[in-house]
Amino acid sequence: DIQMTQSPSSLSASVGDRVTITCRASQGISNYLAWYQQKPGKVPKLLIYAASTLQSGVPSRFSGSGSGTDFTLTISSLQPEDVATYYCQKYNSAPRLTFGGGTKVEIK
Amino acid sequence: EVQLVQSGAEVKKPGESLKISCKGSGYSFTSYWIGWVRQMPGKGLEWMGIIYPGDSDTRYSPSFQGQVTISADKSISTAYLQWSSLKASDTAMYYCARLVRPWYFDYWGQGTLVTVSS
Q1: Which residue, among B99, B65, B69, B102, has the nearest Cα to B83 in the 3D structure?
Q2: Cis amide prior to A95 (ω within 30 degrees)
Q3: Cβ of B104 and A49 within 8 Å?
Q4: Taking phi first (over 0 means left), then psi (-120 to 50 degrees means alpha), and beta for anything else, what does residue B43 get?
Q5: Three-class SS of residue B7?
């Protein structure tokens, strides 16, 4: 089974900082990667699919990149409302839809 | 507007059975796969299985195969997740979510909290 490893597991940054989260697949998955945001006590929300396509309604400060085994989610200017845990999910082979372990983002 | 509305929180004892539901509306329920995702307290997301309500084709994560049963009733646009004998370790929030091909979740239900305790 392909494993998805996110790093870091948590981070603390200041408002306005650029934040980067990494997701690494144990084998190549082309661009079959999605990112989700889960705010504390809330339902997960789709941010990005196909590694870099922004879901409708998601602020443009979020962006995704990567292909193959290495992917990144970037928040260009961290806002207080971005406090959340972020998960990557691979979907190259249905129905093995493995999630990464999550990255908790906090404000410094 | 696409909506997935899940049944309410449950408190059960070990060994009891349970069936929770997820009702879809605002889209063609039989044209999209529905998935179930577990989130144990303070932990991450784990996909459990998926079902295509159009023909009830069902696929399970190896971690959950044999532990739960996923079903759907397309006549009432509802998917189900059931246990025949609950364990304390089944205590978790369970989400249903709509799958877009190829296989990411675009809409999520509000979650059903299942607590199993003697």
Answers
A1: B69
A2: yes
A3: yes
A4: beta
A5: coil
Q: Tens digits of per-residue pLDDT, B90-114?
A: 999 999 999 998 789 999 999 999 9
Q: Measured between alpha carbons, how far is B86 from A87 in angstroms, rounded to an integer?
A: 28
At residue A82, φ and ψ (nearest 5 deg) are: -90, 0
- Six token digits for residue A13: 């940054």
CA–CA gap between residue A1 and residue B108 (Å, rounded): 25
CA distances in angstroms from B36 to A79, B32, B50, listed in the order given: 31, 13, 6
Distance (Å, rounded) from C-alpha B86 to C-alpha B3?
Answer: 28
- Containing A104, the helix (H) or strand (E) segment is strand A103-107
**Residue type at position B27:** Y
Residues of chain A contacting residue B47, judged by C-beta atoms under 8 Å apart:
89, 95, 97-99
In this structure, are residues B109 and B83 in contact, taking their beta carbons and an 8 Å threshold? no
Q: In this complex, do B44 and A98 lie within 8 Å of one another by their Cβ atoms?
A: no
pLDDT digits (tens, 9 = 90+) for B53-94: 999 999 999 999 999 999 999 999 999 999 999 999 999 999
